[in-house]
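Issue: copy button drops trailing tokens. Both records pasted manually instead:
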Amino acid sequence: MKKRDFVFTSESVSEGHPDKICDRISDAIVDTYLTAEPQARCGVETLVTTNLVVLAGETRGPASITPDLLIDVARKAIREIGYEQDNFHWQHAKVKCHIHNQSVDIAQGVDMSGNKDEGAGDQGMMFGYACNDTPSLMPAPIYYSHKILRALSEARHAGKTPLLGPDSKSQVTLRYADGKPIGVEKLVVSIQHAESIDDKGVREIVRPYVLESLPSGWMCDEENFLVNPTGRFVIGGPDGDAGVTGRKIIVDTYGGWAPHGGGAFSGKDPTKVDRSGAYAARYLAKNVVASGLADCCTIQVAYAIGVAKPLSFYVDTESDLDEDKLARVLQEMMDLSPRGIRTHLGLNKPIYTPTSSYGHFGRDPEPSGAFSWERTDLADELRRAF
């Protein structure tokens, strides 16, 4: 984004959104495999609709992980989200498992053998981005969209909003002056609610969580604060709309502010560079901005299936920084082969369920190893290099 005056919009969706239910289940299955075998392979998709869950995809792991176990994993994920509705209930929904073994053709390209290093699990290009709009070095519109829904989710799980349901969306339009966010132009929250409350009641329940999520003085006027603009949102979740894994890739990343390579993350083990390559690109971009070398940084990395080293590496800081040197330095600091990324960031762990909602980026690193790609441990070394 060039420095000028403009407005920009990003959206988020809650863990109870149908597509996010699918991401949660798929990542819970990945974690189940990685708990049993850190080198397990997963490419798992989930579909949900009215009282039905379908699991599909390919895996490679221990025989102890049976279809019945994976069905139980799916039910637990739905229960943790909070679905106990007549037309979508963790206990009563039918769950069908059609997961099968990984293709041997894919396996031979990905696995190490002889002098051949482990190859990328697929072709494609991945992007990473960081900017100094927010403390987490994320673009502000997606940062505040996530923050609003996380506040509402925490309140629901704490029993503070019993009339609100798990399915919700937010959309934040920010006003920028000279390239910096200065306030909310328009704000939308759509959230599932009980039959007993009207849209005005929902608005007043939602309002304090929106206000606490925004900087002081940023809130828009009443005319531009839209809560359930259709006037009613009782039927929600998979009963209102089917969901599929990987349909919220812009919500998962930068809210449309930065480029996206097109690959989804959830349901994939970290040999899939759609996931690990995007994590590595975010990690490097964030460290560039955290070092103070640039106000923003975009990184692209590209791979071919079965090939260990990236085909290309691109960096753009929208500044006078020597970007050719920066590209060389970054690739010296981190081995960008699939195995190198997983080793550097510690990705062969069951750390993916928390990533399935409220964004894969802009989160705090956790003791479990989750969100290791949000560390800024290269910032000092980058400053010294320049």
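Record 2 (pasted manually too):
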Amino acid sequence: MSDSHSDSAFHIYMRQLICGLALVLFCGCAHHRLNQPLPPGGAGNSAYYFHTRKLTNNSDDLIVILAFSGGGTRAASFSYGVLEELRNTKYMVDGQERSLLQEVDLISSVSGGSVTAAAYGLYGDKAFDLLDKAFLERNVQRKLLFRTLNPFRWPKLWSTTYGRSELAADYYDEILFKGATFADLNRAGGPYLAINSTDVSTGARFDFTQHTFNLISSDVESYPVSYAVAASSAVPGALTAITLKNYSTNGPVDMPDWLKAAAAAQKGRISRRARELLGFTDGKSHPFLHVVDGGVSDNLGLAPVVDYLQSLPFSKNEQEDMKKLKSRKVVVIGVNAFSSPEKDWETKESPPGSISTAAAAASQSLERNSWNTLDLVREGFEHWREELAKQKDVKLYSIYLSFTNFKDQRDQRFFLNLPTTFFLPAADVEKLCHAGHLLLRENESFNELLRDLGAKNPTAK
């Protein structure tokens, strides 16, 4: 081999080596999308707050709150069916026909339910043309696995500031959210979203709203929707935590009027919750928050409703707002896609393995916590009902949907045995959507609401 040819091959090799090292170094420096600090002067009244929202085509006479649980594609599909049923349900207001879906004011969501909530909040009715193909019928789990196993992505994943949840967030953004931030969500004019996650250090619920972002002096409007959804569905162990920077050392923290009073009181859960929230304001001791699946702290998505109801006695602002309430009907629909796979452990002498035992214990703990949350919501409703009754004739409708509502045991077993994954066969997705239609349509409280509204559903038999 000639010297010139040898030199040429050596130079090519060196160029390839340098390019490879540069790629590793570049990807190894990959970083998560950190949240941004509040601008000077604070968030402003046009920020992503619930109390400043002006919804179009929304009746003042009716408040509708939806809560979507976790459960992967199972939860996303079940809640999607409920949205479709609300869209199909029509009633007359001032001589004009409107759907119950147009009346939704707030959606609080966890994990898989956050996918559906965010898609509808961002796209409105267009979500019904997008979500099934973009997410529900897509094997998201396999795509994420392939991306994780792709050697070209390993340098990124080796970074200490970019993990599997950031990879998932970027994928969600690619297939569904298209770069949208909470500013886009605010401009969309749809229902207000509370996308819930859990602070892994304290176990406290952390939602992606300006109300909570104020506690860390951060701007939620510049934050990507895909990252909030990824945090809400970041199952510990399978996915990594999403990191948020705490800017509360930058200056005075804007906090709700009830927080310090509730924290100083000895009122059980709401006092503990207030102290948790106050902990977020300590940016010196906690300069970063690492958040994971919202189901760890509340798998129903109903905790924000509980917090509001229990904070009322401590908040003069909220009490004044309640006096101005024009609504005569308040509707809360909880959509719980929990699973309970059949086990035969009690028929065998040998106990289940450690992994199976740990998974079952975690599942049972989540379910017990969900029932406790549901009981707190019901108790809070009764108190709220009493307070509202002092001022006006207000009726509350509590609607709770789960697969145990099926009368047929075979249907119950089928849905309760569906796995918690981000992929299900198209036939199962279709059945879950239909379950959302059917269980809402057959719910006694929902039918009472329809009678009171004079509403109709063209798909009902």
